Automatic annotation (TrEMBL):
Compartments, as annotated in UniProt: Cytoplasm
Protein name (record): Phosphoglucomutase-like protein 5
PANTHER family: PHOSPHOGLUCOMUTASE-LIKE PROTEIN 5, PHOSPHOHEXOMUTASE FAMILY MEMBER
Family statement: Belongs to the phosphohexose mutase family.
Keyword Nucleus annotated: no
Gene name, Swiss-Prot/TrEMBL: PGM5
Lineage: Eukaryota, Metazoa, Chordata, Craniata, Vertebrata
């Protein structure tokens, strides 16, 4: 599903004309200025046409692209969703299935700081370094240009490689098709095998959009003062039967290993003793309205715990985040605008 963005003609040319997929398997491929009245964002909130088609069980593989084609979403049969963080980690774990990486090898991986740590577990098993960067593809470009990094990705559905040094949705989809062809497994089987080997990282992003910039500034200021105070380390939060102990906090900053530039205030991180994470970050805005993003991540090693709903698993962490930030009370919101 090209969602009436610029990727439509490429989808038809590559997938249908060159690889022989049926013509009716490529939908919404005519680029339109208004994207057919829809929001061209490849996630479960907006790519509903694809999601409903996949839920029917007729198709084994589905993908959607954003307006300019650099971001993508993967779905398996019956609407099985592959999170962007899992997608990146699974690609990294299956590099031998991809001709480019068989030829070039791998020197390093990159992920944005808010992206889940699923990639890190794969990298550790491969003894390959992972570069944790601020949000923004330019940080990856530096790493790739210097030869430090071959594969990069971010939680906002973007993945890319040093052959192009950019994110490319169609490339990522072709990589997935290469993995499926080599392993002769379904999307769901590949993902579940990955979880069985590396564990599952439950992950969600919550977007509070259209906020008053002054309000978000004070929320982040007060939150930073709270979580970076030494007394916050070791604090325990009990939510139901869950008890979370704070192990580390910081205001994320990045020192570029290539040119030494320092980028500060890229998000507030709370890391708990069980490796769960909470991240608060202000997204770029026009200055008129602001977006506050909340990320939650929890790791589950036991395969018996891999079939839970992410939001159910993460609800205790979200309760902690809302308690310490007072987002709802200070913005007048009762919930996020977008959940991915």
């Amino acid at each position: 599903d090209a969602m009436h963005g610029v990727m439509g003609p490429y989808v038809r040319k590559v997938l249908c004309d060159e690889l022989g997929a049926p013509a009716n398997s490529a939908i919404n491929c005519v680029p339109l200025e208004d994207f057919g009245g829809q929001h061209p964002d490849p996630n479960l909130t907006y790519a509903t046409t694809l999601l409903e088609a996949m839920k029917g069980g007729e198709y084994g593989f589905g993908a959607a692209f954003d307006a300019d084609g650099d971001r993508y979403m993967i779905l398996g049969q019956n609407g099985f969703f592959v999170s962007p963080s899992d997608s990146l980690a699974i690609i990294a774990a299956n590099l031998p299935c991809i001709p480019y990486f068989r030829q070039m090898g791998v020197r390093g991986f990159g992920r944005s700081m808010p992206t889940s740590m699923a990639l890190d577990r794969v990298a550790k098993s491969m003894k390959v370094p992972v570069y944790e960067t601020p949000a923004g593809w330019r940080f990856f470009s530096n790493l790739m240009d210097s030869g430090r990094c071959n594969l990069c990705g971010e939680e906002s559905f973007g993945t890319g490689s040093d052959h192009l040094r950019e994110k490319d949705g169609l490339w990522a989809v072709l990589v997935w098709l290469s993995i499926i062809a080599a392993r002769k497994q379904s999307v769901e089987e590949i993902v579940r095998d990955h979880w069985a080997k590396f564990g599952r990282h439950y992950y969600c992003r919550f977007d509070y959009e259209g906020l008053d910039p002054k309000t978000t500034y004070y929320i982040m200021r007060d939150l930073e003062a709270l979580v970076t105070d030494k007394s916050f380390i070791g604090q325990q939060f009990a939510v139901g039967s869950h008890v979370y102990s704070v192990a580390k906090t910081d205001s994320f900053e990045y020192v570029d290993p290539v040119d030494g530039t320092v980028t500060k205030k890229q998000g507030l991180r709370i890391i708990f003793s069980d490796a769960s994470r909470l991240i608060f970050r202000l997204s770029s805005s026009s200055g008129v309205r602001a977006t506050l993003r909340l990320y939650a991540e929890s790791y589950e090693r036991d395969p018996s715990g891999h079939d839970q709903e992410p939001q159910a698993v993460l609800s205790p962490l979200i309760a902690i985040a809302l308690k310490i930030s007072q987002i709802h009370e200070r913005t007048g919101r009762r919930g996020p605008t977008v959940i991915t």
